[in-house]
Design goal:
It is a single chain. The mean pLDDT is 83. 15% of the residues lie in helices and 39% in strands. It is mainly beta and 96 residues long. The protein has a five-stranded mixed beta barrel with strand order 1-2-3-5-4. It has a single domain, classed as Beta Barrel (OB fold (Dihydrolipoamide Acetyltransferase, E2P)), CATH 2.40.50.
Length: 96
């Protein structure tokens, strides 16, 4: 799954991730190892990860990659930008 970091607390090593399937946010806990020696995450960073659902809460389980995004961006702007990009880059054709 692909997601965007909405916030991350580097001291506690916890954060919230918006998921591409637009389901509930996923919690990133301190037990999750970040790849490539990445020590912290910033709002707007893009993650590729797997999730686990426990007691109806989504948790980030494994992070495969981190791509730097817009540092200190407003999460609402990040999500709105993601949606506008997806709408204009549709590769589907309507066939009647």
């Amino acid at each position: 799954m692909i997601g965007l970091v909405l916030w991350f607390n580097p001291k506690a090593r916890v954060g919230m991730i918006w998921c591409e399937d637009q389901g509930p946010l996923a919690f990133l806990g301190p037990e999750v190892e970040l790849p490539g020696g990445c020590e912290t995450l910033d709002c707007g960073d893009q993650l590729t990860f797997s999730i686990e659902v426990r007691d109806e809460v989504r948790f980030v389980r494994d992070v495969a990659s981190v791509t730097s995004g817009l540092v200190a961006a407003d999460p609402r702007d990040i999500i709105a930008g993601f949606h506008s990009t997806r709408e204009t880059e549709s590769h589907l054709n309507i066939v009647a």
